[in-house]
Design a protein that fits this description.
The chain contains 3 helices and 3 strands. With about 110 residues, it is an alpha+beta fold.
């Protein structure tokens, strides 16, 4: 449950949707890029196996190389465990360096 910080009335800035709208548009791009990563990996069992093996071996360079080979034009921060991988894609808009983030977590075993 979310509990907003208490602020006396009148201390919030007026609502302005311009930056929020820009963030929404930038988020659409991230969804498309995330779809590209997922589709590219799903299309190749070899790529899936290579990613999983590299993650289990702790081979950061190989994991990054596989993710970059998907062709997405934004930086993808990748973290992994021996049982899963997490991709964090970020975009910027309106002078805000990190307006939006898309996180995709994928598992390959349930233990």
């Amino acid at each position: 449950m979310y509990y907003p910080l208490y602020r006396p009335e009148g201390l919030f800035p007026p609502v302005e949707t311009t930056l929020f709208e820009q963030s929404l548009r930038a988020s659409r791009e991230l969804f498309n890029h995330g779809q590209t990563v997922v589709d590219d990996l799903a299309a190749s069992e070899t790529k899936m196996l290579n990613l999983m093996n590299a993650a289990q071996a702790g081979d950061d360079k190989k994991v990054d190389q596989i993710v970059q080979s998907t062709g997405v034009p934004v930086d993808v921060e990748t973290t992994y465990t021996p049982t899963s991988v997490t991709f964090r894609l970020r975009n910027s808009t309106g002078g805000i360096a990190r307006c939006c983030t898309l996180t995709i977590n994928l598992v390959w075993t349930d233990y």
